[in-house]
Design brief:
Two copies of one chain form a homodimer. Helix content of chain A is 47%, strand content 19%. By secondary structure, the first copy, chain A, is of the alpha+beta class. In chain A, a hairpin with a 5-residue loop joins strand 7 and strand 8 (209-218). The longest helix of chain A has 20 residues, at 231-250. At the A-B interface, helix 1, helix 3 and helix 4 of A face helix 1, helix 3 and helix 4 of B. The first copy, chain A, binds a DNA duplex (30 and 30 nucleotides) through residues 1-2, 5-7, 24-26, 34-38, 40-41, 44, 58-59.
Chain lengths: 252, 252
DNA sequence: AGCGACCGTTCGACATTGTCGAATCCCGTC
DNA sequence: GACGGGATTCGACAATGTCGAACGGTCGCT
């Protein structure tokens, strides 16, 4: 019976839809092109298992609390993350900047770990966030080393976030070639104004790139006055990436 | 057709199982008492939608990255959390302790928000974690004010975490009465050695308790020398809880 | 090396199961 | 009090998922 189970596929589609905000039954049914009755049955089931909740007053549906457990369950099971946590802490301490670990998910960068910059300033935790591949240092690393990531992206029109975002395919390809040559990627105000980042590839068994680790922070702390990434930071990031890779290749 | 959809219920059960660690097909099929063929079909579908991943070598299954997106999607949609974030930051800054916000989920406390203690020490983020109801300040608040939470718990045998954990039903009932009388709950080394906590209820529309907010930290910072919670901290926590409650009742 | 046991995967027939669209109910609004 | 939009229920149909046995690969043991 090598065919996906229809009901489960549809339920998953409903959840993916709801991930972007609360919706009414009608909207969901219309988006998925399903009869309302069918959609309601799916929703009712997802509610009994705690994957969606329903607003008593408006009747609209939203994601449920049980999903949070599953999300953190994924993080616990994620090998890349668990191996990288200790090195990420060390990198944050040594560099004084925020550290992020990302992997490819469906044309974006999924942040699987985030260590705050070691100071008292309030910061948003963005584990679980999706970042653009072409406008972040983490994403460029993934693009540069994984053809299965880069291929589909070439078809899409790239979004521009700041004046510096590289959206021209030729220019991006050149930048990715540079990443491969140097072994690390950087980004300066291409995603968020005033922020720059450096990232390096994490390799799993067989040398395949399975993720990326990098630091990000204010432009004047991450870059030299020449606007090139600080050499010391680049070395720290590369060392951390190599350390994680060694961990991954050896064990598990 | 008011009956849950079988296939989806089963898929959800598979996910809940996998939340506790990676498993093989046989183990999953046995745990759920399903034929291997059926289980495999469910797993295959969950894999195509990214909810589970499979280890190439061992063949074992684990949760997939797409679930992380859904988990954070839940957090974004969660009204209690979004209203409480600002007040939680303020409470952490004023009290100098870590702040947590919890709600009831399925006989436990689900941590939906966590602000680190404002200093440089490395701390584990535990958004998504499940804490025991009877051994934490957050949980005692939920138990004290919500009969639908307290009822089922009376049936279960309570787990003991430290020497101080209260597991005798009578003693716990007395403590909950005290919580109701004072309007806040506390806990000293009942869950983690060396840690104490204070929490207060968050009320939604209609005055129902929908969650709890509280601080936790080293015993000697949270408690007076008399072992009673520091009066100033109790006031700060209660004020924060009231502020969040006002936010929730007014809008949405 | 060869054998055996285990585990994930595939297959096809069966009937259980989910699907569908119309009809109903409920609520807020005019 | 009637209208409208939404969620919800219903029952017949057949498409759909289920089941258990058989396949094929891999690891561990002899």
């Amino acid at each position: 019976m090598p065919g996906p189970i229809q009901a489960i596929e549809r339920a998953a589609a409903v959840l993916q839809l709801l991930a972007r905000g609360r919706l009414g039954l009608g909207e969901i049914a219309a988006s998925l092109d399903l009869p309302k009755g069918t959609t309601h049955g799916i929703l009712r089931t997802l509610r009994t298992v705690g994957f969606v909740e329903q607003d008593r007053a408006s009747g609209t549906y939203r994601l449920g609390a049980a999903l949070l457990r599953l999300g953190t369950g994924y993080l616990d099971a994620n090998e890349l993350r668990s191996r990288a946590i200790n090195w990420a802490d060390a990198l944050a301490a040594r560099s004084g900047e925020a550290v992020r670990i990302g992997m490819h998910l469906d044309g974006t960068v999924l942040v699987v770990h985030h260590v705050f910059r070691p100071d008292d300033t309030p910061q948003m935790l963005d584990v679980g966030a999706l970042l653009p591949l072409h406008a972040t240092a983490l994403g460029k690393v993934l693009l540069a080393y994984d053809a299965t990531v880069a291929g589909p992206l070439a078809q899409r029109r790239l979004a521009s976030f700041t004046r510096r975002t590289v959206i021209a395919p030729a220019e991006l390809a050149r930048a990715l070639g540079e990443v491969r040559a140097r072994g690390w990627a950087s980004e300066a105000e291409e995603y968020l104004p005033g922020e720059a980042a450096i990232a390096a590839p994490i390799r799993g068994r067989g040398g395949l790139v399975v993720g990326a680790i990098g630091v990000s922070g204010a432009v004047d702390r991450v870059l030299e006055t020449s606007l090139r990434p600080r050499t010391g930071l680049v070395a720290q990031v590369s060392d951390a990436a190599r350390a994680v890779s060694r961990d991954l290749e050896d064990t598990g």
